[in-house]
C-alpha cells in the first residue's frame, strides 16, 4: 500500500491518492471529515484555521459506500485559495515582487533556504508553499482511511499531548477510550486538567511575546497482534518505519518508544519486559517499557510512541537571517502562522501512525478484498493460539 500527496498551502486544493486498499471495505466519509476537523482544532492556532473548514471529497475508488480496490483519490479544497488566485496562479503573471508576494528572506528553521538552494528557486514562496504543514491535512485524510481498515480488526488509536513548552502533563494509565474521550474535550488535547490550564496560559504568554512553542505528543495503539513488522531486514522493522513517518511530520525532530530516552540510564533488568503466559491471554508481558516492539516486530502489547515537535519557525519576533538578493543580514520575513500547533500535531501523528500500521497489516495479511484479509488474519490468530 502506498500514497502520495500534492498541493500547495495557498493553492486550490490538496490531493491524495491511496493505492492498494482492499475492496469491499465500508467507507465512512464522516470518519474522514471527523479526523480533518479534529486536526483543525487546538488552542494556539492562527487565523488561517478560521478560514478553512476541511472536508474531503472522494473522487475515485469508492462506490455505494464501499471501496472497489481501485486507487482512492481524495481532494481537500483550500478555502483561502480565493485570496491567492494571483499570487498562486499557474499561468505567468505580470507584476512586481510585491504582487507575487515573492519571499527572499528565509526563515531560520523552515525549509525556505535549503529548498531555494537545492531547487535553484529565487522565490522562496515556491518552497514554503509546499513545505507548509497544511500538507498534513492530506495525510490525516489518508490516515483516516487506514484507520477504517484497522477498525475492521478492532485496532484502536489514541493521541495525547504530554508537554507544551515548560508544562508537562501528568501521564495516567487510562483505558484508550477514556483517553480519547478526555482529549477530545480538551483544547490542548491532554487528560490532565491542571496541566491544560497551565498550557493555555503558557501559549498566551508565548504568543504575546511574538514567539512560538513546541512540545511532545504520544500515540497509543491497542489491539495490534504480535508479529507485524520483521527482524529479518532493516527496512521491514516496523518501529523504524513508524519513526520515519513521525519525523516526516512537519516540525517533528525526535521519536521515542515506551520509556524512551530513560532506557539510556537504566540497567537492563529495569528496561526489558518479562514474558508471561496464561491460557486465556497466551504470551504477554508484565510491563510494556519497550512500547510494544522487540526486534522491529510488535509484541502484542500496546504500541506507545512519542514525537517531539520543535516550535514553529515562523515567528512574529523574527530571528536574524540573510537576504538571498543582497546577502545582507536581515530580520526574517514574517508570515502569518500559529504560536503552537502541538494539539493539532497530536491528531496528525495518530493518523500517520495508523497508516504505517495499516501498511504492515496488509503486508502480513494482505489480500485484495476485506474478506480475504479477514480469512488470513483469523488463520494467523488461530496459529498463534496453537503455538
Ligand atoms: C503554516 C502556516 C500557516 C498555518 C499552516 C501551516 O498557514 P498560513 O501561512 O496560511 O497562515 O495555518 O497550517 C495550515 C494551513 C493547516 O491546515 O494546518 C506553515 O508555514 O507551515
TrEMBL record:
Reactions catalysed, as given in the entry: 5-O-(1-carboxyvinyl)-3-phosphoshikimate = chorismate + phosphate
Enzyme Commission number: 4.2.3.5
Database matches in SUPFAM superfamilies: Chorismate synthase, AroC
PROSITE patterns linked: CHORISMATE_SYNTHASE_2
Residues that, per the record, bind FMN: 130-132, 250-251, 295, 310-314, 336
Cofactor: FMNH2
Gene3D superfamilies tied to this protein: Chorismate synthase AroC
Cofactor binding note from Swiss-Prot or TrEMBL: Reduced FMN (FMNH(2)).
Keywords assigned: Amino-acid biosynthesis, Aromatic amino acid biosynthesis, FAD, Flavoprotein, FMN, Lyase, NADP
Subunit architecture: Homotetramer.
Protein known as: Chorismate synthase
Gene: aroC
Amino acid at each position: 500500500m502506498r500514497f502520495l500527496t500534492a498541493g500547495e498551502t495557498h493553492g486550490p486544493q490538496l490531493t491524495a491518492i491511496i493505492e492498494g486498499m482492499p475492496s469491499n471495505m465500508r467507507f465512512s466519509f464522516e470518519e474522514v471529515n471527523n479526523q480533518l476537523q479534529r486536526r483543525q482544532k487546538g488552542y494556539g492556532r492562527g487565523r488561517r484555521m478560521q478560514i478553512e473548514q476541511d472536508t474531503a471529497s472522494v473522487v475515485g475508488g469508492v462506490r455505494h459506500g464501499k471501496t472497489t480496490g481501485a486507487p482512492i483519490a481524495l481532494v481537500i479544497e483550500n478555502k483561502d485559495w480565493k485570496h491567492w488566485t494571483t499570487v498562486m496562479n499557474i499561468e505567468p503573471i505580470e507584476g512586481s515582487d510585491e504582487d507575487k508576494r515573492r519571499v527572499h528572506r528565509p526563515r531560520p528553521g523552515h525549509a525556505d533556504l535549503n529548498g531555494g538552494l537545492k531547487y535553484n528557486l529565487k522565490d522562496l514562496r515556491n518552497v514554503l508553499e509546499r513545505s507548509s504543514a497544511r500538507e498534513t491535512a492530506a495525510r490525516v485524510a489518508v490516515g483516516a482511511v487506514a484507520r477504517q481498515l484497522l477498525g475492521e480488526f478492532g485496532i484502536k488509536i489514541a493521541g495525547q499531548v504530554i508537554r507544551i513548552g515548560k508544562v508537562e502533563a501528568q501521564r495516567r494509565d487510562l483505558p484508550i477510550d477514556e483517553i480519547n474521550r478526555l482529549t477530545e474535550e480538551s483544547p490542548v488535547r491532554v487528560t490532565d486538567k491542571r496541566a491544560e490550564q497551565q498550557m493555555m496560559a503558557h501559549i498566551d504568554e508565548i504568543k504575546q511575546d511574538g514567539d512560538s512553542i513546541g512540545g511532545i505528543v504520544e500515540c497509543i495503539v491497542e489491539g495490534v497482534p504480535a508479529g507485524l513488522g520483521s527482524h529479518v531486514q532493516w527496512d521491514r522493522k516496523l518501529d523504524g518505519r513508524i519513526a520515519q513517518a513521525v519525523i516526516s511530520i512537519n516540525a517533528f525532530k525526535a521519536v521515542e518508544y515506551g520509556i524512551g530516552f530513560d532506557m539510556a540510564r537504566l540497567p537492563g533488568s529495569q528496561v526489558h519486559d518479562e514474558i508471561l503466559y496464561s491460557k486465556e491471554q497466551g504470551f504477554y508481558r508484565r510491563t510494556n517499557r519497550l512500547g510494544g516492539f522487540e526486534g522491529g516486530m510488535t509484541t502484542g502489547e500496546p504500541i506507545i510512541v512519542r514525537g517531539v515537535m520543535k516550535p514553529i519557525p515562523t515567528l512574529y519576533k523574527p530571528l536574524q537571517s540573510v537576504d538571498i538578493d543582497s546577502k545582507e543580514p536581515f530580520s526574517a520575513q514574517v508570515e502569518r502562522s500559529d504560536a503552537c500547533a502541538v494539539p493539532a500535531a497530536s491528531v496528525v501523528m495518530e493518523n500517520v501512525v495508523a497508516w504505517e500500521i495499516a501498511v504492515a497489516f496488509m503486508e502480513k495479511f494482505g489480500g485484495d478484498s476485506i474478506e480475504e484479509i479477514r480469512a488470513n488474519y483469523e488463520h494467523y490468530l488461530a496459529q498463534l493460539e496453537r503455538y
